[in-house]
Amino acid sequence: MDEKMFNILKKNKFRNNIEIRPVKIYKEENLFYLKSSDKQNYVKHRLNQMKESFKEVLNITEFYSINHQSHVSFYTIGMVLIHTSTKLTNDSLYVVSNIDDSNDVLVKLNVKYLKKYSFFPGQIIVIFGKNPNGNEIIAEEIHCIPTISYSSAVEDEENLYSKNYENGPISVCCFSGPFWNESTKFESLDLILEKIYDVLILFGPFVDSKMTAKYESSPQEIFTDEILVRIEKYVRKGMNLKVILIPHPEDVFTVGIFPHSFTFLNDKKLDDRILMFSNPSLFYINEFLFGLSTSDILLSLSSEELFCNQENEKADKCSDMLFCNDRISRICHHLIYQKSFVPVFPSKSPICYEKHNYLDMDVSPDFLIQCSKLITFEKQIGPTVVCNIGSQSTPDNKHYIEISLKSAKESNGKRYDISFLNLKNKS
């Protein structure tokens, strides 16, 4: 037998079995029939989604309406919104609620007595304060860190998945597009496909406007003939190899409304090892829950934030999490604890708010992988490891993330290792 073929067969024989279970994968439908009530219903959904978690952490049983007129301090819940401005300022800071007797009215939020706060449009907050006239809440406390649900699979299913680690840790690679330019063609994609991973996650864009300008073929044909053919060749290297593809807002074959999916491939028969997921996605790799998004949520949060941090303020849960760390950590806390893939509202990008269940992050994942223009990083935020692979606008000098998932028996407490690597320096 040919030695090269023997080595491939030998390697495949001892690779781990991988189970991938979709939790939340979106398929586009009826996105051109957006109703005027969608945004209003989305606000209601977000408030109902968060209110019980805030009650639990504050140990209270009810909220008053935001326009409740009272000289006595009370708790109320609402969504932060901008009014008469394009940027959130102290003068344009309002809250709204449509789940009680507030009747969708905007109520001014007065924060002059607060020494620390971090707001953004769309944020769900609890306010403790007074509203003497019914149209302005004078805030004494702001609460923005509710209880969250997190994946319990790592603890509960250790024995069930232990056999999947018999041949060592599970190797996961995250690599983002674009993968093509006019001079080097698909060199970056070819380079990453030279190495073998148990799970390879490819983020778009796969086919952007620069490519379509140079090809006579349709975007669907370009994807099938140039991208998919390479991936099909890759999975033939091993029986248990898996490839997950996540579309990007710049992919020309998407409808252009978040959430995104590979609509044109819905009827195409693919190899079972090639998984076309949506943007965003939630899925398990064995017992680890992964959340993925190629939309720049982190930059949106960062650019929309209204922030104040004066010293000598009393410590509370919000202060401990939001004001004792760097800006990136603060933004990541908002992303995890607001329980949404699109916490900023309204978004400057087109979003189908009717499909709000697909925008929710009901359970905090073990890993949340983002593609943002902010610096690359890895942060432990509550129960979640948040990673930014970065926005790599060209195929030159690209980097990628390697994640090693370990069995509970061999981990000594830490179940993973993460490395950020440069593609050109790959051995």
TrEMBL record:
Domain DNA polymerase alpha/delta/epsilon subunit B residue range list: 172-378
Signal peptide: none
Gene3D superfamilies hit by this protein: 3.60.21.60
One GO term of the biological process aspect: DNA replication initiation
InterPro entries, alphabetized: DNA_pol_a/d/e_bsu, DNA_pol_alpha_bsu, OB_DPOA2
Keywords: DNA replication, Nucleus
The family this protein is said to belong to: Belongs to the DNA polymerase alpha subunit B family.
Name of the protein in question: DNA polymerase alpha subunit B
Organism: Hamiltosporidium tvaerminnensis
